[in-house]
Amino acid sequence: MKQICFFFFLLWGSWGVKAQQYPSEWVKYTYSGYLYDIQSDSNDRNLSETDFKNYLLNIARTNLAKQIQVRVQDVAELNKQSINGRTSVTYSSSTNFSTDVNLKLVETRATYNSISKMGYVIAYIDKEVARNYYKNELTLVYNKINNSIALAENFVSAGFKTKAQTELKASLKHFALIDKPLFWMNIFGASQSELAEWQERFNMAEQGIKRMLADLKHATVICLSCTADIFGKPYPTLQNELKGILATGGCSFTENPADADWVITITCEAREHSNVNIGKTSSYFSYVDAQIVINKVITSQRIYEDEISVKGGHTFGYSEAAKAGYKEIKQKIGEIIKNNIKQ
Q1: At residue 259, what are phi and psi to the nearest 5 degrees?
Q2: Helix or strand run (H / E) with residue 307
Q3: Which of 17-26, 171-180, 285-294 has the lowest mean pLDDT?
Q4: Phi, psi for residue 171 in degrees, rounded to 5
Q5: What is the pTM of this model?
Q6: What is the C-alpha to C-alpha distance for residues 59 and 201, in angstroms, rounded to an integer?
Q7: How far apart are CA 178 and CA 201, in angstroms?
Q8: Helices 179-187 & 49-76, crossing angle to 10 degrees?
């Protein structure tokens, strides 16, 4: 028994002496606030000092990466966690994150004794530094999202609701960028309360954007004044059909110009053009002439003013030819309006 104890005493003593041979200032890197790997060896192959240090550092970095991979595998087995009734980041989906990306967080130290040919190296990651690195990534993403929201609100205030929608929809892509930094903050020891706080912050921002998009879905308000006739008879069908075309593009309507974003005035009338007889069949042709004026209320600007004409034909007379012309012109007017209010 005494022999066994003596053997372990010698073994421990040998290891202890060897362990103490690395610089004493490295001891702090072995505490719980760090991930580290220390390597030492004798330069029996007579490599240059630089090559020998690099040889040991490559081993230390590899071992450190293995430690991180073990942590990734352990954390990846966590189930989804519920935070205030919402599902948090699914860490198990993050197993494909490469540990190589964290090598930029690795610091190294090396020393070499040219007389004994002993080299000592350490590769380490300061967990707090690593957490702050990914916290900064989250902050950058969060600031981008808030900037998009602020820009969208400015667009709305200026009457550019379509631009606001475009900006908000584009901002949603930023939420896909938060999983990775949250995952690595967890790997490097961030508290669950801090992770939950960040997740909740992004949840609230995402919900706010989606509410704004829902409010903007039919937020473009148009006051449409449309006068149309067919040879002295009112043709109200044109206004109803134009409203249908614009409603599919997210527009709503008001009778009061003061409540509108856009005031659109359309005046149409039909005129006879010609008829052609081929055998016993007569073909009648009429033109529909339209005047279109589009005013932007918030800036008191006249955005568009022009006239267009469309020819329609029918075998039943000029009135039916005019109706055919109206069917064509409604599409053209609808496109003109939609193109000019996309601001």
Answers
A1: -95, 0
A2: strand 301-314
A3: 17-26
A4: -70, -25
A5: 0.68
A6: 40
A7: 11
A8: 110
